[in-house]
Amino acid sequence: MSEAPDVSLLVCTRDRCASLAATLASITRAADAAPQVSIEVILVDNGSADATAAVIAGWQPHFPVHRLRETRPGLARARNHALARASGRIVAMTDDDCLLHADYFAALLAAFAAVPAPAIVGGRILLGDPADLPVTVKLEDHPMTAVAGRFPGGFVMGANLAFTADVPRRVGRFDERFGAGAPFVAAEDTDFLFRAMRCGVGLHYDHRFTVDHHHGRRHRDEETRLLAGYGFGDGALYAKHWRDAWIARALLRDIADLWRDLADPVTTHAGIRAFYAFRLRHKLRGFLFYWRHALRA
User: Fold this and answer.
1) Tens of pLDDT along 176-207?
2) Nearest to 151 by CA among 15, 294, 279
3) Which of 94, 104, 167, 289 would staple 163 via disulfide (CB 3.0–4.6 Å)?
4) DSSP alpha helices (H): ranges in 12-103?
5) Which residues lie closer than 8 Å to 137 by C-beta, 6 or more apart?
6) What's CA 208's distance to the chain center, in Å?
7) In Å, how far are 17, 94, 179, 234, 282 from 229, measured between CA atoms?
8) What angle is formed at CA 33 by the lines to CA 212 and CA 25, rounded to 5 degrees?
9) pLDDT digits (tens, 9 = 90+) for 145-155
């Protein structure tokens, strides 16, 4: 039996052939910079209608690549399909609009060497293009460990996330009702993190393994829709886990934060007035939609 690779990198894609080509090129560069790290890439086409298939077929790196197709829409479905093929000791994920830094793989192994297994570690996410709005980034420049009992939303992000291979065996699959292309829009990664922390899995952030995120959102309405979707997904997650004391504490914090719209307003999202009220409103929408969806099912 062949030895398990050090890293399985999962990339799920849908209709982003141009950015995907750049992502794949960055993976090759990072692998070339770390010849001591054995890797495999699991690449899932989630029903693309553009030239994605040609981009995938034309990529010929020197390390193993598993090319899969998941025709049912949904990022969580695509990730679950990829997870089923992963054999690495560390499973990492990035998005099809991210570029890996050249030292990504060496830095990833260093991050996991610093924490006990089982562990989830999120990496740094920088803005790839200064013309894009500063959203879906993670900029802290020092390691952090999540506090047990605190809701993990935003602590790390799925665009640069990794875990030891034993974590899915403890936590289970991604909930396919959550995430892009699914009824609850977002929060498939937060739901996974929440369940992992309840199982005693350590959650960490390490700035050393880094990606540049070229998300392409440059208009206020795009940012507003994105943040509304994040709130909606978190609200559905609140409903899913409503019996858990963590959720009650998170909701109470959301309500308590409303005063900050007057005392300490958020000014970084120009299209949103009263950010904390905006966020709570969309969480309540997601909470109610979850129960309507559950009753219909």
Assistant:
1) 999 999 999 999 999 999 999 999 999 999 99
2) 279
3) 167
4) 17-32, 52-58, 75-83
5) 125, 126, 127, 213
6) 17
7) 24, 20, 9, 9, 8
8) 50
9) 999 888 999 99
